[in-house]
Amino acid sequence: MKSFITFILLSLSLIAADIDTKLYDGNDTIAYYVEISKSIDLEPSNTEEDKERITAERKILDKLKPLLDFQTKTTAFPQTLLPDDQNISMENYFSFLNALTDIYSTNDTLKEDEKVIIDKLKYLKDAIENTTLEYKQNLLLNQLEYAFYKLKKRNNTASSKAYEKLIVSEEERFTHKLKQVNFDTITLEKQRLELKKKYEKTLKEETVLSMSKERELMYRETLSEALNKKLSSNNIEKTNLLTAKINQTLLLTLAYVQKNETDKVLELFHASKTDIGTLDTPLQKHFTFKRTIVKTLLDKEVGAGTVALSNVQQGAQSLYMYTYKALNEPLFVFNEHGISTIDIVMVIFIFVFGFLLAAFYRRKIMKLATKHEKISLSSAKIIANIGSYFIIFITLLIALKSIGLDLSNLGLIAGALSIGIGFGLQTLVSNLAAGMILMFERTIRLGDYIEVSESIRGTVNDIKMRSTTITTNDNIDVIIPNSSFIQSNVINWTLENDYRRIHIPFSVAYGTDNELVEKIVLEELKHSGINYVEQAPKYRTLIWMTGMGASSVDYELVVWVRGDSSTRPAGTKSDFLKFLYVILRKHHIEIPFPQMDLHIKNDQTLTLDA
């Protein structure tokens, strides 16, 4: 019930007022104004607010009648500038363009006013339809204001249509008269070039004055009067020169349209857009209208498709320039040089290219080593490693130079790093130095069979700056720091050559003929399939007696092997042991084994009592 009463009171507090259309629409509007004027005279004016409101109502009512009598008029156009029966000077032709531009500006102002009027009408309509009893006295004022803006909007719309019609007709006249214009292209080009030079000089002066401004603000709170005058004068001169340059560019554009030089036309037309973009907003708007008129002429004379395609190309170029500018914006400053995105991309590209080049160089050198027997694999590996490291080093220098790093500062950086190297990186530096020594000294080469310790023995597979990779006979890769080869003893089984002498022990039983054993073993060895070095003065195969044990006579087969046999000692030894076992059994030579005879001595007689 309480909510219902509240709703009723709220409804009574509102006046369901409608827009009074008789104030701006109808045949008896003037008579209606007379009635409104009389009602205003009868309104009580007890307070100052009432007096002000009544005064406002009378003034607005007085303005409504002229708006009803409004006759659409347009600005007088200088038709004499473009006569029909004689040649036209380029000054008159350009004056006509200026007049046409003013019409564009006037029409644009009408459209902008219309947008503002629409917002005001919307506000007044809401105020009228939602008028409360408290503000009832303002209803007539709101109605009159609404009628005023309604009539003004109607008149603006009519004027705008009239100007648009005038623009169409005069643009056609402007285009049609182009052929009658006497253009002095050479003079125009010279004047444009002079304006360009003067404008560039003004820009330089602006930079100098800007620096002077900053300098003065460093030691005083305000600028001197003289500097202020110079800044103001420079700004005015810069604007005047730029506007004159744009006018000259547009006039030249029209001259080249007349000569059918399309490329020159499009070049100048796009140049004018760039210059217009640097102006202040009011001037920018004015010259945009002027450029629009010229574009309409270009669409008819050059072709709308050609201009559109040129605009697309110009847009793509502008996008490229914008992207390029964005990529060149400094992200941070290093060594008093701004580092941009494109600098970072360039460094990455240089690094990638350098590493790819180093990898290509390494593969090429190794391929040459496999094709030419004169180049050893180890030498090729050294050349490949040193060359690739040199390429990477040069790549690093080029990359640092590309971002503006002063390479003379590398000495300072190296000095600063030397402390860290002395403490934290000494092991790394030691390994790098050892790697360089190994590469040049060549005491360990690729393919060499080396023994570092009792448990590590294998073929050198790779030699790098920091470490060396050894592949054992069990196909296990062992990575060993290079400093280990410099500081510890290393056995290189194949340094000078791959000839190796191995000792294979074997035993025979006591009583076996020594000469027979030696003869049988040497003769059978010649006809065996074991890979060993044949008899030679330097590499003779021998059989040594090494001892007389508890149950056997001990011998050693001393034989020279080479190639794979020397790098797989355990397998080679196994082959010879199998050979010895077979031939000794074949010739019935006893292979003894330890044995012990047990003798029991009994000195006492055991007596058993019954």
Identify the notable features of this structure and list them briefly.
610 residues, 3-stranded antiparallel β-sheet, 12 strands, 10% strand, alpha+beta, 17 helices, elongated, 5-stranded antiparallel β-sheet
Outline:
The chain is α+β, with helices and mostly antiparallel strands and 610 residues long. The chain has 17 helices and twelve strands.
Question: What do you see in this structure?
Answer:
By secondary structure, this protein is α+β, with helices and mostly antiparallel strands. 63% of the residues lie in helices and 10% in strands. The protein has helices at 2-12, 29-42, 48-68, 90-129, 139-176, 185-219, 225-258, 262-276, 281-327, 341-371, 377-402, 410-423, 426-441, 483-487, 514-526, 564-567, 569-586; strands spanning 88-89, 181-182, 330-334, 337-340, 449-451, 457-463, 467-472, 477-481, 491-492, 500-508, 542-548, 553-561. It has a 5-stranded antiparallel sheet with strand order 8-7-6-5-9. A 3-stranded antiparallel sheet has the order 10-12-11, with helices on one face. It has a two-stranded parallel sheet with strand order 1-2. A hairpin with a 4-residue loop joins strand 7 and strand 8 (477-481). The termini are far apart. Mean pLDDT is 80; it is low at 1-14.
